[in-house]
Amino acid sequence: MTAPVRAAEPIGIRNPILPGCHPDPSICRAGEWYYLVTSTFEYLPGLPVLRSRDLLNWETIGHVIDRPGMLDFDGIGSSGGLYAPTIRHGLGLFWVVCTLVDRDDPARGGDFLVTADDPAGPWSDPIALHADGIDPSLAFDDDGRVWMHGTRLAADPEWPQQTEVWVREYSPAQRALVGEEHVIWRGAVRGAVWAEGPHLYRIDGRWHLIAAEGGTEFHHAVTSARAEHVTGPYTPNPANPVLTHRNLGRGPGVIGVGHADLVQAPGGSWHAVLLGMRTADGVHYPLGRETFLCPVDWQDGWPVLAPGAGRVPDRVTAPWATTAPAAGTWQPDGRRAGEVPPGDPRWTALRALPAEIARIDAGTWRMPVRPTTLQDAAAPAFLGIRQQHSDVDVRCTLDLSGLAVGERAGLVVRQSERDHVVLQVSRCADGDVLSVVRRRAGILQEGAEAAITAGPSVELVLRVRGYEYLFEHEGRILGSADGRELDAVATGGFLGIWIGVHASGDGPAPGARCA
Fold first, then answer.
1. What are the DSSP calls for 29-89, one per residue?
2. What tens digit of pLDDT does each residue of 137-182 get?
3. Where are the domains of the chain?
4. Is 449 a known active-site residue?
5. Whether residue 196 lies in the annotated active site
6. For 349-504, which CATH class?
7. CB under 8 Å to 456, separation ≥6 — which residues?
8. Residue of 66, 135, 196, 333 marked catalytic
9. Neighbour tally for 413: CB within 10 Å
10. pTM of the model
11. What are the residues facing 146 on neighbouring strands?
12. Distance CA 417, CA 126 (A)
């Protein structure tokens, strides 16, 4: 008697597909590969390019902004920098459009375009688009014309923070926007703020607009509209918003979903990548805005996101995926525990490339001390990676042999210049001092101190359990921080938390007894 063959369980894609601060995702497909980019703000290298054959297994193949001098980041404060990129493939090239934002100087930066033959790079030098606003995108018409579009504050708003979406032709030959500009969208709901993140698609003879609305926080939503012509007029989807979690209320789970981008699989199915925030209390999300995957169906000529459920699923069934991630294999999304080697593409620096801040020597980072501090909107001696899990242990061994009196180095939990916590070793004339120092809203808060035996190296430990961040040395807890006071809700930024190392030699160490 032969036992019946049991069909294999379909592989499920776990959400988020990119945990940790991977906001504003944009996706395209070229052949058998999907390519995805996300915002990186003041961190460099900028705009990681990830690829996947199945939307399940992702690898980082490069970064768009990866050369010195491509853009000027000096003086750009936290939650400024690179906003909301869009990636597309057309006319034989890969295209990325994005915005460089200086929140303190709105006249600086602006929308730009780069192209590449290979999405792994190299990418061209940026071409300024000289367009107002943020969140640029582009679409290719059937006749090969290129249509740029983006978001800006409405010229004559009916309510505060009302925005409008514009569209205009782009000439690859002239490398400039040409022709007449058309305003095509001002939001689906009267009174809704920040209709933004627009993407246009030519599908079955119609133009479809997907846009965010409500602000990139709890009330975030996805809306849609369609038109016969790219310049409009656009008819709103009667089901708007086509996806939001705000109606679910404040509870544990995923909030703030929005900023969606659609892609079609080779077999004809559709999917959306979008951002959302995992929260344990319905309010705070130290991991920042993450990238989620959502199924899409087309009914009556309109997109239906998360059909039959109306919310982003915990897992997306992927019958086309044949290979699940092997246990223990390295994934660029950080699901594997273990050492993060210097060559890992998750390493970032502030306003400079990691190679400009440190060098790799014998399999480890060697980072010279700089006078710049974490409070400065410059390029300090800092290297870090996104926090990608709510429960994580971080061990960091610092070589202090080159540290001079008055200099310090430590393990950092960073949100911004104004909000961060450091477990630091300060080199004093009469010995080393270990202390926990915090900046909250720019104000210095001194913590516990302990004299330690001078040595060539020291191991510092950070243990994160939910919202609790514990700083340890040799099994002793020296201080703690509350992630609810460090996330974007509390600080007013757009970022998740970064964990890294920092060294400074700007004079007497704040918070240390030798000051």
1. EETTEEEEE---BTEESEEEEEEESSSSS-EEEEEEE-STTSS--TTPPTT-EEEEEEEEE
2. 999 999 999 999 999 999 999 999 999 999 999 999 999 999 999 9
3. 12-317, 349-504
4. no
5. yes
6. mainly beta
7. 399, 400, 401
8. 196
9. 25
10. 0.94
11. 140, 170
12. 27
